[in-house]
Specification:
With 311 residues, the chain is of the alpha/beta class. 35% of the residues lie in helices and 20% in strands. It has one domain (3-304): Alpha/Beta hydrolase fold, catalytic domain (Rossmann fold, 3-Layer(aba) Sandwich).
């Protein structure tokens, strides 16, 4: 793609954008898109892998959760439910392994990375049911402090994180102390200004979003758990950290959801990063990406820290 088509693009991202093909129709060939992502799975150990230990547990017959625990940690640890992105139809454990390892040893937390069922083979609510089941497993662990359990997701994972928080509230638990929603996919109506404008943007565009929701919903209709932007009542939800990117069709639904959380009395920290695109994280050396990563970790660390002893 031509970086010149995006005048406000961060200069550090221009090189990556220039290398990207037009991906607006990428989800039409779902098998091809999945094969392409498989090619990005790192071979061999990832940095910090020696600092964590892993175990897996099935969820039903077609999903699983991988737990990451800091080696030699003792006592009850905070827990983080981690939900990968991929438009509800792509992604999995191996692609997210490096980030799960990093979050585990950096935060000193038990991280539960969910290999939820993907659409269109398994339309809504299958994937969300898996995420909620994984939350129940995480909160029930003997080595997890049930008062310090958070959820984090990126893109479709951010939408699933928001939906999981709604389910936990409405079903009476497990309680979440925090929700970190990264560039979240929240609204199937595709009618925000950014969604109408960004029809050919890097990494994610309106045509991809439309097909993503078509896969996820199947023949069903969206409710507040499928598309959290449809939820009328956002009160009683955990504090939130919301990230959006300027040149992302999902930008305005993330900002709108954050504002509605605030209006419902929920504490929110909202960061809209200028000059960024959906999936900017692939440019690991870009200064803005390093800032995005550092600020997310800081927000999670503060949320999961032990409560200060009362005087």
């Amino acid at each position: 793609m031509d970086p010149a088509d995006f005048p406000t693009l961060d200069p550090d991202l221009a090189g990556i954008v220039a290398l990207l093909p037009d991906m607006t129709e990428s989800l039409a060939d779902l098998a091809g898109a999945r094969a392409m992502l498989d090619g990005f799975v790192p071979e061999g150990p990832v940095p910090g892998e020696e600092l964590v230990e892993t175990s897996e547990q099935p969820i039903g017959e077609a999903a699983r959760v991988r737990f990451y625990r800091p080696r030699r940690a003792t006592g009850e640890l905070p827990g983080l439910l981690y939900l990968h992105g991929g438009g509800f139809c792509l992604g999995g454990l191996e692609l997210e392994h490096g980030l799960a390892v990093e979050l585990c040893h950096t935060l000193g937390a038990v991280v539960a990375s969910v290999d939820y069922r993907l659409a269109p083979e398994h339309p809504y609510p299958a994937g969300l049911d898996d995420c909620y089941a994984a939350l129940q497993l995480l909160a029930a662990r003997d080595d997890v402090d049930a008062a310090r359990v958070a959820v984090h997701g990126q893109s479709a994972g951010g939408g699933l994180a928001a939906a999981t928080a709604l389910l936990a509230r409405d079903r009476g638990g497990p309680a979440l102390c925090f929700q970190a929603l990264g560039i979240p996919e929240l609204d199937d109506r595709l009618d925000t200004p950014s969604m109408r404008t960004f029809t050919a943007t890097p990494m994610w565009s309106r045509p991809q979003a439309a097909l993503s929701w078509q896969y996820y919903l199947g023949s069903g209709e969206a409710d507040r758990y499928a598309a959290p932007a449809r939820a009328e009542d956002l009160s009683g939800l955990p504090p939130a950290y919301v990230v959006t990117c300027e040149l992302d069709p999902l930008r305005d639904e993330g900002i709108g959801y954050a504002l509605r959380l605030l209006q419902a009395g929920v504490s929110v920290e909202l960061h809209s990063f200028p000059g960024t695109v959906h999936g900017s994280a692939i440019a690991r050396e870009a200064a803005v990406v390093k800032r995005m990563d550092a600020e997310l970790v800081d927000a999670l660390r503060r949320a999961l820290a032990p409560e200060q002893a009362q005087p």
